Amino acid sequence: MSHKERIYELRELLHKHNYNYYIKNAPEISDIEFDTLMRELQELEALHPELDDENSPTRRVGSDLTKEFTQVAHKYPMLSLGNTYSKAEVADFYDRVKRSLNEDFEICCELKFDGTSISLTYENGKLIRAVTRGDGEKGDDVTANVKTIRTIPLVLSGEGYPDSFEIRGEILMPWEVFDELNAERARQGEQLFANPRNAASGTIKLQDSAVVAKRRLDAFLYYMLGEELPADGHYENLQRAAKWGFKISDTTKKCTTLEEIYEFIDYFDSARKELPYATDGVVLKVNSIRQQRNLGYTSKSPRWAIAYKFQAERALTRLNEVTYQVGRTGVVTPVANLDPVQLSGTVVKRASLHNADIIEKLDLYIGDMVYVEKGGEIIPKITGVDVDARFLLGEKVKFATKCPVCGAPLMRSQGEAAHYCSNEVDCPPQIKGRIEHFVSRDAMNIDSIGPETVELLFSSGLIKNIADLYTLEANDLLLLPRMGIKSAENIINSVRESLSVPFERVLFALGIRFVGATVAKRLARTFVTIDNLMNADVETLVATDEIGERIAGSVVDFFNKDSNRELIARLKTAGLKFTLDKEVVENKTEKLKGKSIVISGVFEKHSRDEYKEMIERNGGKNVGSVSKSTSFILAGANMGPSKLEKAQKLGVALVGEDEFLLMLE
Ligand code: IVH
After folding, report:
1. pTM as predicted
2. 425 vs 439: CA distance, rounded Å
């Protein structure tokens, strides 16, 4: 089989297995087998850039850095739907349709997914463009990001799809992914996403599609448009689309009577709470496309469809007290303590008041009757006050001025909603938070120390900061409750193993505000040693790619503090890595690992010696003569005729100078 045939075969296989795994939930091969096929394809594609295909399954990993999005006009405008909030309004819609059509009709009932809408264009079975709603007339071209979503087919399977069509749907972030993402953001001191909708729309607009790929977005498609759709029924078209590889919700139902529609609404008003993704209502659509055309559009929305929005669940209860919680990053969050009240199946006693501005806006008094809602948000929140129920005015709620744990004054940076405890060094929840972040998997990966052990170590006085971890001894640990020899040894061993963690992760582990894993990597690669970084001023820092003033300011502040300088000195003595590994500095990679490469001909961009050095630096071997085991020939102009002939005979590929440089990028 030729390289070309194998590449095509692998692409088809991987598309199929992707579909089995992500859409059908019925994988036929193991993850390892999948990865092996993927790696084979990646390697073959790297060697044969001439067979490049932007819809190859390898493109899902996401790599190209988009600087800004291009705006694209929608072929068909992206309209919104009229909203209704009661069954009476649904009945009005139903009657209007009935009167206008004056013939039998079906209503397709669907869930209203709470994400961000997307329009996908397919031509000849290939995804060619993905555009956000934008202003309805034109949107942002986010194709590179959308290609990372595994449930969106890059190449269609099956048959009967139109040569050209658009399909629209909702990009979602499943609850599970959302919770993980927010937990991670909390660890890094970043602002949390309020709900999965914001998280999905924020993610799809990120500049780096590799980060998008990690966020595990999902998508349901719910609307097909085009001149040559397979059927007259909206529902039937979507069923066909499911066969081409699209993820279509199986909750959709065709109804004919108003009672059936109400049944659908009632069922999902409660069943939605068990779904793995957020929904905020039901969408009702006249099923026949001919009838849709007859009904037409108003200036803003179709007359053939409406949305019914679920009631956000709300309860009225009394506000007894406002207390404050200090998070790991020092953010102080006000919490309303309430008379217990039933809300969506649980008893709520506490609700978030978010920040000082929100308290101010609500104009709260202790003893007020307040509305509590559990929307798409993480914790219940107070959304209003029943002013009429205010008889005896209690004390006005004023935001705290001191940290409830350590008593230090609170501060608020300009333009920020949150208050912080100013006692970064000694405030217990902040210390524990920093240690938890330090030992976490993506940081120092000290997996024998979880949050409970951190609590134990801290409250017993064994550690007061991250540097103390490196002077711990097994004997000290044995004094702790529930600590056996085995666990104590595990802790000591994994602390020792963390000494080999590379500099960029150590830098991330320090927990500098706004320095996440990616920023840490960038800083480590630019500054190479911690001393260079410690001595850099804001100006030098902002000259680094992707580092803005906010990050630069935070880095400088961090290293200006004596306590942090002292900490780093102690960590250095303990033996942590504060210099970039030699391989990284020298730009060494394994991109050409296992490859035997012959260099032949004359080159323009680099000398032969430079190419030889590049091959070796990237893990390849430079060999003199062409043989069966030659991986490819790095071929310049005027390549020797005998080498050329031999290469052709043995089927060894020729790779030009530009292609070779691309491989190493
Ligand atoms: S159909 C012309 N179906 O709700 C009809 N929209 O206000 C186009 N949405 O922007 C939309 N689930 O983002 C449709 N099953 C569904 C939907 C849905 C969620 C969103 C979509 C749209 C908004 C309408």
Report:
1. 0.56
2. 18
Does residue 336 contact residue 319 with C-beta atoms inside 8 Å? yes
> Alpha helices, DSSP H only, in 398-484?
428-439, 451-459, 474-477
Query: b or e along 520-538 (b: 16 or more beta carbons within 10 Å of the residue's beta carbon)?
Result: bbbbbbbbeebeebbebee
CA distances from 209 to 52, 56, 520, 588 (A): 19, 16, 18, 24
Q: Which of 67, 112, 432, 621 is catalytic?
A: 112
Going by alpha carbons, the residue nearest to atom 15 of ligand 1 is 112
Q: Please report the atom of ligand 1 found closest to the CA of residue 111.
A: 15
Ligand 1: residues with CB < 6 A are: 79-81, 110, 112-113, 117, 133, 170, 222-223, 283, 302, 305, 307
Distance 80 CA to ligand 1 centre (A): 7
- Quote the ligand 1 centre to 14 CA distance (angstroms): 31
User: Which residues does 142 contact at the CB level (< 8 Å), separation at least 6?
Assistant: 69, 118, 130, 131, 132, 204, 205
As averages over each run of 10 residues, the pLDDT of the chain (665 residues) reads 86 85 71 78 83 81 53 90 90 97 97 96 96 89 93 93 97 93 81 84 87 93 95 97 96 97 95 90 97 90 93 87 89 94 80 89 93 74 88 88 95 84 92 94 91 92 96 92 90 96 96 88 92 96 87 95 95 96 79 90 87 88 89 88 84 88 83
Structure tokens, 84 = 């209704």
